[in-house]
Design brief:
Low-confidence stretches: none
Mean pLDDT: 90
Number of helices: 5
Number of domains: 1
Number of strands: 0
Strand content: under 5%
Shape: elongated
Distance between the termini: 14 Å
Helix content: over 70%
Radius of gyration: 15 Å
Order of helices and strands: HHHHH
């Protein structure tokens, strides 16, 4: 975060986060569909699809963070919250808004000197 955030970089972050949301949501829905077709149990399919998606999403951030604990706890937990928002609303824009909040609140606190 040592670099300045100009308008172009900020716009790129918004696009990147939406791409992450598409990645997560499509993966979760694909896994969910496969599991439901095999088992017929919707609840277990949702739980397993969410956990697998959180694991894969967290591992996709390994190069950026390099800590298994951080990517599983922070990225994985954030993913579960985003997936929950999507499942409740069936709207990717809702999960995107939640993702933005989860990513920008800590950045805002750092910028304000609170962390």
């Amino acid at each position: 975060m040592g670099e300045t955030m100009d308008a172009g970089r900020i716009a790129l972050v918004f696009v990147q986060l939406f791409g992450e949301e598409l990645f997560k949501t499509n993966m979760m829905l694909g896994i969910l569909l496969l599991l439901f077709r095999r088992s017929g149990n919707r609840k277990s399919a949702i739980v397993i699809a969410t956990l697998v998606t959180a694991l894969v999403f967290g591992l996709a951030h390994y190069a950026a963070y390099g800590s298994i604990v951080q990517i599983l706890l922070v990225q994985g937990l954030g993913c579960i919250i985003d997936v929950f928002a999507y499942l409740k609303t069936k709207n990717i824009l809702t999960s995107y808004a939640v993702h933005l909040l989860l990513d920008f609140i800590p950045l805002g606190l750092v910028a304000l000197g609170a962390l």
